[in-house]
Design brief:
By secondary structure, the chain is an alpha+beta fold. The protein has one domain: tt1808, chain A (Alpha-Beta Complex), CATH 3.90.1570. 22% of the residues lie in helices and 31% in strands. The protein has four helices and 14 strands. It has a six-stranded mixed β-sheet, sandwiched between helices. Strands 5-4-8-7 form a four-stranded mixed β-sheet, with no helix packed on it. A hairpin with a 2-residue loop joins strand 7 and strand 8. The longest helix is centred in the first third of the chain and has 17 residues. It is globular.
């Protein structure tokens, strides 16, 4: 693969492994760690239970999320796979993934993805209209919460119960996720 070339969705679908694209630049996504999967599984379970009577849908990676400046999603140059996402607008759902910004995203960082998740994906999510983002680092006993609607950030420690700013009534004990 040439590093000076920009790519689109049809390119990465022919490659082996999991890939994301940010503005045409490809990023290979390594397999997550066991601890990453435990955190993801527990949070996914809690979100699914919270939304079981609601119209919102909860998905886990790998689910392609297509982000574009326009409404044309045929072959975008930005496709990400958040660890967990919640979509409340059924019009954004398509067979191959989600077109446009999910309402809520969780990224569980690893040493190989932390810089990309914080420095590239976080501003990308804000730009495209994600309403709330949680960043979880299994190596540290806290969760970063970004409320893009209010323009606020908060770090929740292991002794606290994180409250979603978007979904009233949804909260998680930080210690229950990061042990």
């Amino acid at each position: 693969m040439k590093r000076d070339k920009l790519y689109i969705y049809s390119d990465i679908k022919t490659w082996e492994g999991r890939w994301e694209l940010i503005d045409g630049v490809p990023f290979k996504t390594p397999a997550p760690s066991r601890i990453h999967q435990e955190i993801s599984g527990e949070l996914f379970y809690q979100l699914r239970n919270f939304f079981k009577e609601d119209g919102c849908r909860v998905y886990s990676a790998p689910t392609d999320v297509f982000l574009r400046e326009t409404d044309e999603y045929a072959n975008p140059d930005t496709v990400v796979q958040p660890d967990i996402l919640v979509v409340c607008d059924e019009n954004k759902l398509m067979d191959k993934g989600v077109k446009g910004a999910p309402d809520f995203i969780v990224e569980i960082v690893s040493p190989s993805t932390a810089i990309k998740d914080r420095n590239q994906k976080r501003p990308l999510y804000q730009k495209h209209g994600v309403k709330e983002l949680w960043i979880i680092d299994p190596a540290h006993p806290f969760i970063e919460q970004y409320d893009f609607i209010a323009g606020t950030e908060r770090v929740w420690s292991s002794e606290e119960e994180i409250q979603s700013s978007l979904f009233k009534g949804f909260s998680v004990n930080v210690n229950s996720l990061i042990k």
